[in-house]
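User: Okay, second chain of the day. Same drill as before: sequence in, structure tokens out.
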Amino acid sequence: MEQKTQVPSNQIVSLVTVFLIGTITIISPANEMGKYSYISVLLAFLIYLVVLGLYYLLSSLEPDKNLFAIHDAAYGRIIGTIVNLFYLVYFFAVTTLIVANFVNFINTAILVRTPDLVIASLIVLSIVYSARASLRAILKFSELSFVLTIVTIVGVTLMVAELMDPRNLLPVIPSDWSAVVDSSFTVFSFPFGEMVIVLSVAGLLGKPRQVFKSFTKGSFLALALILTVVLRNVLVLGEFTSMTSYPSFETARLINISQVLTRTEVFVALNFVFSGLLKGFVSFYSLARGIKETFKLKTCKHLILPLGALVALSAHLSFPSILQNVYFAAEFYRYYAFIPQVVLILITFVVLYIRKKVQAK
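Assistant: Same drill. Structure tokens below.
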């Protein structure tokens, strides 16, 4: 694994933007809220900005340490290892969910007769290869994904502009704000709160102040693109948005320019592959690095392939259908994820801050 180096800010912005978008190019956030999904996204982002500030404060206390080493510094070796194990389980769960999203989408929309374990294995092999490469290779891949993501989202949006109906956003003010707020909690956990995974490698990217400036830029850019996707789907599909699992894919299917430019949903699928893989790369890399740091290994390359096999098997057994995936995200994941995304980060910051104050006296 790499040592700390100064990474160009444009690469960090690309990494954060594409990571936050991830599988959202296909799986629209707050989809169940239909015309009010964009409100849930905005509320979730406001919460995320506060949490991102907390991430910055924690990193500033120990600028030369990664998240796993910070836990050791805050809690001591024994408790720090227990906290690290909790994060390793969380990173493993996120990686599994990413692979499951791939499998569910490909099995549903593209290769309907291909065994899901075969698809999961192919996806995991790509992710494993990235983990055996380097963080710098992942950063370079993020630049390519960044360009493809912007071109695809903007391009599809322009091509369906004539199909958009502003009346699909009426009435503008929701009648049930409790449902909107509840949905924003889910949107925070996925995708915004998952930035804690990037935080685990933030120490490798440079000094906290410069790194978090790029984090903020990438986050706002991701928000703009996510809102573009959400609003575009609602304006085109209307009430049908909440009835489909993959609204972006269905929106792109409607493109028909002079009977020449059709079947453009393939570009949405390609975008999903690139941005989804990038998110899988970062999650799996952070998982592998976390194992190395937690157990003080010289290298963990010999563990990467077996670890990848566990991810593929877990995705195959745990989420055989999109319905189970959605149910897990809505009924369990958002509560479980809140612990590593916010609760433990806040506790760690308070404990480490007090330790620093006591040591300074």
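The two ends are 36 Å apart (CA to CA).

User: Thanks, on to the next one.
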